[in-house]
Amino acid sequence: MINDTAKPAGKGRMTTGDSHVIEHYAMGDLGETILRTLRDMGKDTNALTPEDLAPVDAMHIRGREATVALAKHVGLEPGMRVLDVGCGLGGTSRHLAVEYDCHVTGVDLTEEYCQVASLLSDRLHLADRTEFRQGSGTDLPFEDHSFDVIWTEHVQMNIAAKSDFYGEMVRVLNPGGRLAFHDVFRGAGGDVVYPVPWAEDASISHLMAVEELEQQLRSLELKKVYWEDCTRVSAEWFGRAVQRVQKHGLPPMGVRLLMGPTARQKLINMSHNLQAGHVTVIEAVLSR
Ligand SMILES: C[S@@+](CC[C@H](N)C(=O)[O-])C[C@H]1O[C@@H](n2cnc3c(N)ncnc32)[C@H](O)[C@@H]1O
């Protein structure tokens, strides 16, 4: 049975491991760097659109295309309250707010990302439909049953406490609500080759097998509404990214910006990890 005992809203408390994850993602000057990069790409930063931002604010495999595809299976409706856990720079939050007329709250461990997400939403005049706050996905700073939809993309691979992460998302989800995720899991093909976009080495990478994921979801009594293994399309996407890098020498601006000096190696390794079955990618929607 689901434990429905009311638990006070978490405080977004962090663990020691969390500080290493923040070190991996934080840059210190990301807001200004993004705006400068967009200007260098010929964009008018006073008249930005969500599409302008997609090369830098969709920090997951297949970029905005993956978000668009998954959102179609969620049953989003105008006025719904959505929580984007590990929202990064808020690209997905803004997409859902604009396309589905929802109110989206993003929560992320990395304070700088929350600040930049707010700055970008301000620039797009979306501050009334999106809000961002710092907090941990393992101790969500929200009351029970606060959201109609919980969304998470490419976050849990940095989280060791899987049952806290999934348990917290279910706690804040309304009965009858939906959990949507697009995520990376351990494949059967052997050890992951590092660096990868979420970790320079294995120390902050916590991949679980799909069987363990399914066990987590069963224990929370979540029912599958949609389930798709995206490993092949993800491998093809990284394969094309590697080909472009081999042709042009450098990864695209957005990738370099967010993946740092090892960006090129991360793309090559991900292409290999996906093709060799070291990792697998699942997108899914479950109902509570
Ligand atoms: C690869 S990025 C994905 C960002 C966003 N979901 C997207 O797809 O654009 C991973 C994000 O997860 C966040 N994160 C990692 N561990 C977290 C945790 N315990 N709680 C909340 N956010 C976390 C990181 O700060 C980072 O912003």
Strand order of the largest sheet: 3-2-1-4-5-7-6
Helix content: 40-55%
Mean pLDDT equals 93
Domain module count = 1
| Order of helical and strand elements | HHHHEHEHEEHEHEHHHE
CATH homologous superfamily, by name?
Vaccinia Virus protein VP39
Named at the architecture level, the CATH assignment is 3-Layer(aba) Sandwich
Helix vs. strand class: alpha/beta
Instruction: Tell how many strands the DSSP assignment holds.
Output: 7
| CATH first level | Alpha Beta
Query: What coarse outline follows from CA principal-axis ratios?
Result: globular
Ligands, ions, cofactors: S-adenosylmethionine
Query: What is the rounded Rg?
Result: 18 Å
Termini separation (Å)? 12 Å
Hey, roughly how much beta strand do the residues contain? 15-25%
Tally of contiguous helical segments: 11
Describe this structure in words.
The chain has 288 residues and is α/β, with parallel strands linked by helices. The protein has one domain: Rossmann fold (3-Layer(aba) Sandwich), CATH 3.40.50. 41% of the residues lie in helices and 18% in strands. The protein has helices at 16-25, 30-40, 50-57, 63-71, 91-100, 111-123, 162-171, 210-219, 231-248, 253-259, 263-275; strands at 81-85, 103-108, 130-134, 147-153, 173-186, 223-229, 279-287. A seven-stranded mixed sheet has the order 3-2-1-4-5-7-6, sandwiched between helices. The longest helix is centred in the C-terminal third of the chain and has 18 residues, at 231-248. The protein is globular. Mean pLDDT is 93; it is low at 1-6. The structure holds S-adenosylmethionine. Residues 18, 21, 25, 58-60, 86-88, 91-92, 108-110, 113, 136-138, 153-155, 158-159, 198 line the site of S-adenosylmethionine (SAM).
